[in-house]
């Protein structure tokens, strides 16, 4: 029997509908420029407060280290300011980048935090247009120069010296991987404190830990992009000890001459790809889900299906023509 206990909007991080009453949910905004929502069922108010404080504490701490716009010693902003030299790095920053570097080249080619200069060129034009300035594309020569530096550059992680060396002229952007990694670490911290059943949703990077009861799984809604159809949810998935992450073109974007340019950049062209409107990855680890959802967004569906097979994850693609494509295994999670 299907029971919809609690629907979370995957990509916006808001609790959409929540019955019955024993689900508790609370959100905070600020870390990673996104809403983070913690949900649990059947906890006492004091225990929920404790769970929430652990998650909020982890996100606040990790945001200061992983954001390129913060100047925390050993954080990414601090390391960027020292590009070309060995910079002291916080253990969590080394861990995040070691996690990325350990992945297959088919993934690290698509999602490359060394593209920070490229994403900064796009962000500057996007933000200026969204604030009412002229809607312009970045200068192509500047994009290609920054892209060439990023693609030829090597990220040097020295775990014993606890340093990171960036190639000169390169800066890091961990935006494609940091939220999922923070969800992973916050999940581990909550589990270490004895919490087994909860949901953390950081702007569409979701960990559904445990299940709300023995009979039911967590029910999580995958948001439909604008103009995708009449429904606000593309589907609902049943999750137990599973993470989902969505990358899409419908939240951070701007338009130039009627054409949409989103915040995810294909490394081969240095422009936003248009293979799908959104792609959601399902797998047990929130860090991997975040990394792979961005990677899949930059690949055509065939290459994406091959990557899913290679990495053992499932995925749901929402295409521009309104079709939904899934890996065979994803069907087992979809219940509406
Ligand atoms: P996500 O929302 O997880 O798909 O990540 C998107 C964010 O990652 C963007 O806002 C950029 O900051 C950054 N980004 C975009 N394209 C890439 C890329 N190809 N490799 C690494 N980071 C990227
Ligand atoms: Mg991502």
In short:
The chain is an alpha+beta fold and 336 residues long. Helices cover 32% and strands 24% of the residues.
Tally the helices: 9
Which sequence of strands runs across the widest sheet?
A: 3-4-8-9-12-15-16-17
> Structural class given helices, strands, pairing?
alpha+beta
Q: Using DSSP, what is the number of strands?
A: 17
Largest sheet: 8 strands, antiparallel
Radius of gyration: 20 Å
Uncertain stretches: 1-21
Shape: globular
Strand content: 15-25%
Q: State the order of secondary-structure elements, H for helix, E for strand.
A: EEEEHHEHHHHEEHEEEEEEEEHHEE
What small molecules accompany the polymer chains? Answer: adenosine monophosphate, magnesium ion
Overall residue-averaged pLDDT value: 93
Helix content: 25-40%
The assembly state of the depicted protein chains is single chain
Give a written overview of the molecule.
This protein is α+β, with helices and mostly antiparallel strands and 336 residues long. The protein is 32% helix and 24% strand. It has an eight-stranded antiparallel sheet with strand order 3-4-8-9-12-15-16-17. A three-stranded antiparallel sheet has the order 5-7-6, with helices on one face. The chain has a two-stranded antiparallel sheet with strand order 1-2. The radius of gyration is 20 Å and the shape is globular. The model is unreliable at 1-21 (pLDDT under 50). Bound molecules: adenosine monophosphate and magnesium ion (MG). Magnesium ion binds at residues 176-177, 245, 247, 290, 293-294.
